[in-house]
Amino acid sequence: MTRLERRDVAAAALIVVAATWLLVATAGTQGYARDEGFYFAASEAYARWFEQLLRDPASAVTRAQVDAAWSVNHEHPALLKSLFALSWRLLHGRLHLFAEEGTSFRFPAMVLSGVATAVQYLWGTEARGRRAGAAAAAAFFFVPTTFYHSHLDCFDVPIAALWTLTAWAYWRSLVGGGWRWAVLAGVAFGLALDTKHNSWFLPFFVGAHTCISRRRELWAGLRAGTLSLPLALPCMLVIGPLVFVAGWPWLWYDTASRFFGYVQFHTRHDYYNMEFLGHTYWRPPFPRGYAWLMTAATVPLVTLAAAAVGALDAARAAWRGDRPHDPGATDLAWALGALVCFAPWLSTGTPIFGGTKHWLTAYPFIALFAGAGVSRALSRLEALVPPRARAVSLAAASLALGASPVVQSLRVHPWGLSAYTPLVGGAPGAATLGLNRGFWGYTTGGVLDVLNALPHNASVYLHDTAWDSWRMLQRDGRLRADLRATGTPSGADAALYHHEQHMAGVEQQIWIALGTTTPTAVRGLDGVPIVWVYLKRPP
Fold first, then answer.
1. What is the DSSP letter of 94?
2. Sheet containing 459-461: which strands, arranged edge to edge?
3. How far apart are CA 452 and CA 442, in angstroms?
4. Pick the residue with more confidence: 537 or 11?
5. Please, what is the Cα angle at 318 between 316 and 324, to 5 degrees?
6. Do 303 and 143 touch, CB atoms closer than 8 A?
7. What confidence tens digit (pLDDT) does each residue in 317-340 have?
8. In whole angstroms, what is the distance from residue 255 CA to residue 70 CA?
C-alpha cells in the first residue's frame, strides 16, 4: 500500500476543481433531459421550504408545510434535489455566479462527479500506487456516457460517487482507519440512501466482502460463541438510516408507510421502451446480455482492456498467494463492487429503459482495475526500456493509453447517449446493429438555432422533451421566450422528433398534421440522424 501524503490530497482537490470546471464549461451545449425537468420543479418547491425554515422554523417543520413542499417528486430521496435547490437559490439567485439557472441546478451533481473521480485517484493510489490512481481517475471520468451523465441535474453520477465513497471508507476502516473511517462509512451510506435506490446494494457488497475475506475468523468466532464484525458494518446499519431519514423531511411523518411506498414505487416500477439489437423491449422478459453488451459498446476499449489486465493480474496474485498481507482484501472489494452493481441484470425482469446509467455504479470499480492494469503495463515497460529512454517511453505510453477515452468523450459531446465505441463501429455501427440512438428528449439542445429562427409566437410540438426542460431552456435565454410549446402535432407550426424505434408512429402523425414528410433540419452524430425538426407546410 501507498500511504497518502499531502500532495495526494492536493491532487485530489485539484481533480475535483478541474473536473467540475470542465463540466461547467461544456454544459451550455447540452440540452435538458426529461428527468431534469421534473427535478427542476421539485427543487424549486424544496427551495421555498428552506426559505420558510430560515424565516419560521417552527412553522416549516409542521406536517402541513412538510407535506406541501416535499410531496413533490416524493418517489425519489431528497439529498440531491435539496442541493440543487440550494445551489440555484444561492449561486444563481444571490451570488449571481451562474448566468443560466439550469447550470446552477446542475452544479452539485457536477461537483460530485469530481468527487467520484478524486476518490478513484485516492483509492487507486493507496492500493496500487499513484500511476494506478491517476489512470483510474481518468478511466472513470472519460467514459462518454459517464461524461454525459456528469452534466445532468440527476442522481446517477452522484450515487456512483457516494457508492464508491462508502465502499472506500469501509475498505479504509479495514486497513487501519479505525472508528473514524467506520463512522464515515456510516454517514456516506446514509447520504447514498438519500440519493438513489442503488444504495440498497451496498449492504450486499459489505456483507459479501466480510463473509469471503474473513470467513475463517467468522467460522472460528461462531464456534467459540463470539462474532467479530468490521467496525463499519454496525456504523452503516445505525448511522445510515438516521442520516437518511433526517435528510428527507417527507419521511418525518408516517415514516414506515412512506418508506415502504418509496420501496414499492421502485420494485414495481413502470416499464418503458428501449431498443436493443433491433427489437424494442417494453416489458419482461428482458435480454440478459443487455448490460454486458452495452458496457462493451459504450466504454472505451482501452479502458476495458486495461481493466481486464488489472483483473487478471489480481486473479493470478490470488491464485499464487502473492498478496497475503492485504487486510482490506482490495482486489476482492473491487471485484464485488462491480459484480454487485451488475447483478440485477442477471434477471430477465430488471428494467433496461435507462440504459447504461442503471449500472453506472459499477464503473468506478472497473476504472480501479483499469488503473491497476495501466500501472502494471507501465511497470513492465519500465523494466524493458533502457534508463535513458524511460521518461519518454512512459510519457508516450501514457498518452497512447489515455488519449482515446478523452478524445471519444469530448468529441461526441453533447450527444453522449448516442455515443458508441469503435468496437461496434461507433454511432453508425450501433445504428446498424439496432442499438438505441438516444432518449429523454435532451437532443432539443442540438436544434436551438432552428427553433430560434421560427416566426414570432410560433407553436412547437415538443415530442419527447419535458415541459419543464423546455421552459428551462427559455429561462436560460437559450431559447426564445415567445415560442409556445404544445403537446400535440395538430395545429403546431413546427414539430420536434427525437428518434426511437417505437416512436415511428409519432413521426407519421407529424407528417399528417404538418403536411410534409421532409424535415427542415436533421442533427446527429457521425451521420446518424438523432433529432429533426419539421415545419408546417403552407396551405
1. I
2. 484-486, 459-461, 494-498, 528-535, 521-525
3. 17
4. 11
5. 130
6. yes
7. 989 888 878 899 999 999 999 999
8. 13
Look up residue 95 and give its amino acid: L
The total of other beta-carbon atoms located within 10 Å of residue 503's CB is 17
Residues 6+ apart with CB under 8 A from 73: 38, 39, 41, 42, 81
Q: At what angle do helices 130-141 and 6-26 cross, to 10 degrees?
A: 20
Measured CA distances, 231 to 185, 207, 210, 217 (Å)? 10, 12, 11, 15
- Residue 450: helix, strand or coil by DSSP? helix
CB 349 within 8 Å of CB 281: no
State mean pLDDT over 135-155.
97
Kind plus residue range of the DSSP H or E element containing 397: helix 387-412
Q: Which three cell numbers, joined as nine digits, stand for 386?
A: 533502457
How many other β-carbons are positioned within 10 Å of the β-carbon of residue 155? 24
Distance CA 512, CA 507 (A): 9
* Residue 497 and residue 437 in contact, taking contact as beta carbons nearer than 8 Å: no
Q: How many CA atoms lie within 13 A of 426 on its CB side?
A: 11
Cell output for 498: 427525437
How many CA atoms lie less than 13 Å away from 197 in the CB half-sphere? 16
- Grid coordinates representing 497? 422528433
The SS3 call for residue 224 is helix
Average pLDDT over residues 182-206: 97
179 pLDDT more than 90 = yes
Q: Where are the alpha helices (DSSP H) in 268-386?
A: 290-298, 301-320, 330-342, 363-384
**Integer Cα distance of 533 and 506 in angstroms:** 13
Residue in 97, 89, 100 with CA at minimum distance from that of residue 50: 89
C-alpha cell at 342: 451488475
* Residue environment code for 434-450, b if the CB has 16+ CB neighbours within 10 A, otherwise e: ebbbbbbbbbbbbbeeb
Closest CA to 158 of 194, 203, 200, 185: 194
Distance separating alpha carbons of residues 104 and 98, to the nearest angstrom: 6
How far is it, in rounded angstroms, from Cα 436 to Cα 493? 28
Look at the alpha carbons of 191, 195, 197, 202 in this order and tell me if their dihedral is positive or negative: negative
In which band, very low, low, confident or very high, does the pLDDT at 223 lie, cut at 50, 70 and 90?
A: confident
First-residue to last-residue Cα distance in the chain: 75
The contacts of residue 225 (CB under 8 Å, 6+ apart) are: none
C-alpha cell at 279: 427489437
- Whole-angstrom CA distances from 305 to 34, 267, 329, 481 are 34, 34, 23, 48
- Bridge partners of 460, per DSSP, are 485, 494
Please give the model's pTM, rounded to 2 decimal places: 0.96
What does DSSP assign to residue 109? Answer: H
Output phi, psi for 163, to 5 deg. -60, -50
Give the count of alpha carbons within 13 A of 29, CB side only: 12
Q: What is the mean pLDDT of the chain?
A: 95
Encode burial over 367-405: b for 16+ CB neighbours within 10 A, e otherwise: bbbbbbbbbbbbeeeeeeeeeeeeeebbeebbeebbebb
Euclidean distance between CA atoms 490 and 513, whole angstroms: 5
